[in-house]
User: Which sequence fits this backbone?
């Protein structure tokens, strides 16, 4: 969908995704879906709320994923 959004889970990332990486991905998603790189002032609040909600959902998703064999791949 958006080439700027990168995979944030192991083993693609060597370590756990940072809050900054998760927020950057959420921002890219909201920009793509809304069609606005920077929202007008009257849309700023809803734009920021969407970024916050997507960042939170992404963090929940990443913390809940079970990556089979990830430990074995990192050890080698």
Assistant:
């Amino acid at each position: 969908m958006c080439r700027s959004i990168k995979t944030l889970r192991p083993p693609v990332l060597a370590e756990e995704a940072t809050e900054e990486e998760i927020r950057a991905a959420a921002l890219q998603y909201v920009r793509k879906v809304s069609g606005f790189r920077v929202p007008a002032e009257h849309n700023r609040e809803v734009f920021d709320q969407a970024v916050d909600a997507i960042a939170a959902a992404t963090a929940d998703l990443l913390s809940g994923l079970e990556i089979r064999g990830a430990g074995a791949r990192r050890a080698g």
